[in-house]
Amino acid sequence: MDLKNTLAIVVPCYNEEEAFPFSVKSLTEVLKGMIASKKISEKSFVLFVDDGSKDKTWQLIEEETKVNPFARGLKLSGNVGHQNALLAGLLTANEDSDITVSIDADLQDDVNAIEKMVDAYLNGADIVYGVRSDRSSDSVFKRATAQGFYKVMSAMGAKSVYNHADFRLMSHRAVEALSEYKERNLFLRGIVPLIGFKTEKVYYERSKRVAGESKYPLKKMLKFAFDGITSFSIKPISLITALGIIIIICSVAALIYSLISYFTGNAEPGWASLIISIWFLGGVQLAAIGLVGQYVGKIYVESKERPRFNIEKYAKHKEEE
Predict the structure, then answer these.
(1) Element (H or E) spanning 142, and its range?
(2) Residues 273-307: tens digit of each pLDDT
(3) pTM of the entire structure?
(4) Which of 44-48, 63-67, 281-285 is predicted least confidently?
């Protein structure tokens, strides 16, 4: 077996002091198991990326790197968001690895699926998606909204993998290809499928959080979904245009009806219908302006070309330095 296959497991962390002890223990055991079976190199490691946490997350990461030869820590200079933190980890880890696997610190994704991903890589896959086999652990509301999101993304023409989040394996060259995508409005679930190369899927059952609270409340989830749609499709603008045309047609039909009613003597004063029409059209116009504004805003952010993240500190075990 080729022992040059160095695996890096990238774990974005934001206020995960409660989940970290469970996460580092489980992922270290996963590495040791695959090293023992000679599937990966002894130089493999877990890279925890601290995304500007306000609790003791970085302190725990730094302490772990002193006693655990498999643990590394990357401290970002501030909170840049999950997607940017994940990208920072992937690009940093790729410098010392042949394979990267991204997984969240809450361990809702099955760590046992990592070995299956590595097996798929060894069989020639450059990208392996971790896909949920079911959503029985989700609430009815979350299940419905998640399924709706994937369907909307598909309808908008954006490439996405159904029931896949950010639990995936990428080869060294796949991460290099990812680094060529320079947009600041990051939505990795939509970007990675654009890379190409040979892909596979590994199915698993998602569990509940090992500790702590979700960092994605409803408000953040909705914003994340909206950013994903507007980052990969202009169909919303096309839909607004189509709606405008439909309204114009309806207005012409209403005008003809009004004229016929007037000349036949059946016209009756109706201020209510007039007010409703004004409010309706006003709402459509504001929605259209707001939607176009979102796209203009994204262009504004991209044009500034500001860095997506800044690294404050990189911690390794002494043997790794």
Answers:
(1) helix 140-155
(2) 665 577 677 767 767 777 777 677 667 666 767 67
(3) 0.69
(4) 281-285
**Residue 130 in contact with residue 204, Cβ under 8 Å?**
yes
Count CA atoms closer than 13 A to 234's CA, side-chain side: 7
Say yes or no to pLDDT of 61 above 80. Answer: yes
Distance CA 164, CA 315 (A): 30
Q: Which pLDDT tens digit goes with each residue over 73-84?
A: 999 988 888 888
CA 10 from centre of chain = 14
Query: What residue spans define the domains of the chain?
Result: 7-212+307-320, 235-304
Average per-residue pLDDT in the chain? Answer: 79
Structural contact between residues 127 and 170, judged by C-beta atoms closer than 8 angstroms: yes
- Is residue 41 within 8 A of residue 117, CB to CB? The reply is no
**Could you confirm whether domain 7-212+307-320 is CATH 3.40.50.720?**
no
Instruction: Spell out the residues 6+ positions from residue 203 whose beta carbon is closer than 8 angstroms to its own.
Output: 113, 131, 132, 133
Per-residue buried b or exposed e for 114-145, using 16+ beta carbons within 10 Å of the residue's own CB: bbbbbebbeeebbbbbbbbeebeebeeeeeee
Contact 135, 206 (CB under 8 A): yes
Q: Of 179, 142, 182, whose CA–CA distance to 163 is shortest?
A: 142
